[in-house]
Amino acid sequence: MLKPDAFADEVAALCQAGERFGNRQWTMATGGNFSARLLDGTFLITRSGVDKGSLSGDRLMVCDANGTPLDTELQPSAETPLHALLYRLKPEVGSVLHTHSITTTVLSRSTQSDLSMCGFEMQKALSGVLSHEQRVCLPVFENTQDMTILASQVERRFSSTESLPPGFLVRGHGLYAWGDSIAQAVRHVEGFEFLCACLWQEHLARPHEN
Questions:
Q1: What does the pLDDT read at residue 209?
Q2: Which residues contact 95 (CB under 8 A, 6 or more apart)?
């Protein structure tokens, strides 16, 4: 268990993010996981099976850069390898947040390819996007219970290009987004969730063949 004064700012910010996302029903039940990189290269991450909408210090733990718990009596999220991978791949990343909203879950199941976004003003919530005219490609990966397989797919994709946005979807699962700070990661989650909701509403508005 974390000491009450350990990483107080990071703990408080992750708890606030959890409450914010929980109120929007983006992390229902035990869905989602959050992490934040610490100065010594370790990272805070939510423990397995906890409600992210009511986070507290005792529901967070510390893992080393490889995702190994520093306290072996505690169990981190099953998706810790993905967080560890993103921190290794992207030294600028300070926080990784994963949500399980209904919209991103069903939208990811409605397509067999990556999602393309263009024409939305909210795209500018994403770092590096300066205009609604800029096309954003949001990768969609197949879901698997084997995090080593998913991590290797993510690594191949994000190691091969610099033009991808700070996030991706896992089919039937939800959204991963990150930023150089917890605040920026929260902004990216909110931006992606808004954009995905717009894409889903556009999908529903289209005439469909019987």
A1: 52
A2: 14, 34, 35, 36, 37, 178, 179, 180, 181, 182, 184, 185
Between CA 76 and CA 125 the distance in angstroms is 30
The stretch 195-210 carries a mean pLDDT of 85
- d(C-alpha 75, C-alpha 115), whole Å: 34
- Assign residue 115 a region: left if phi > 0, alpha if psi is -120 to 50, beta otherwise? beta
Q: Hey, which residues does 45 pair with through a beta bridge?
A: 35, 61
Reported as a single tens digit per residue, the pLDDT across 64-92 is 999 999 999 999 999 999 999 999 999 99
Note the residue count of the chain: 210
CATH number, span 8-205: 3.40.225.10
Q: How far is CA 195 from CA 8, 24, 103, 116, 201, in A?
A: 32, 15, 10, 10, 10
The residue extents of the domains of the chain are 8-205
- Bridge partners of residue 95, in order along the sequence: 36, 179
